[in-house]
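Re-run with default settings, no changes from the original entry. Doing this only to confirm the output is reproducible before filing.
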Amino acid sequence: MSPEPSQNGDEKPQKQLHELLTHTLVDIYVGEENSHYPLHEKLLCHHSPFFARIFYNKSSSSSRTKEFGLPEVSDEVFALFVGWLYSCALRFPEEERDIGPLLDLYFLASKLQITGLETDIVDSVRAYYHNNSKYPGLRRVQYVYANTEEDNVMREMMVGSVARFLALADSIPQHWANALKKNGQLSVDIIRSIQEWHLEERQVPDAREASVDRGRGGFKGPVGFSAVEGSSEMEDVKEESGEEDGEHVNGNGNGAA
């Protein structure tokens, strides 16, 4: 894990775990049921500038009570955070359903300003899709867009993967076609991602040349510029972590919804 930045933007020196396990604890209350998590204050504040401002600010009530609540965070996600906090390691996702909690952990890490955890999560999600020859599904991408701003590393990784999936596919899956028509920012980001490939001119077909057929021919027969795969309508934006949601790659290396 890379060193955490300090509040002024400089990297903090790495510290051993035993140096951060002091006697002072803080009480974090999570979820609607106020589940109680007693954590080592120095360890928590070392990794999180967010908590450092709360517990090291003498004018803050939390600094006096050593308590803070995160009612919007689930126990599952906060347990993942606590596991990372004391080990600086994440369990690698084994199934698609494991991605949902990791994304929620990523959003929490962004809130708590823990860049090391954000990086670890992006690396884990990226490796899962690569090692399993899959691409992020539409619902995953929509969920990330709904919970992040522009210039976000997870968003860039997701949209970069989708750009490759769509570029290699023989046609655009219907649910992606619907989404791209409705979400102009996603469409623009896909184009930007392709531009970052820095392709040489000779690698890109020139539609101005009479010999270029725009991909209408091929082993599947005439396709047509606007052809899309038949599919169901676009799914809701709401995340359902237990549901299969990934674009698979077929044996030809092309995307298949």
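The CA atoms of residues 86 and 234 lie 40 Å apart. The chain has a mean pLDDT of 83.
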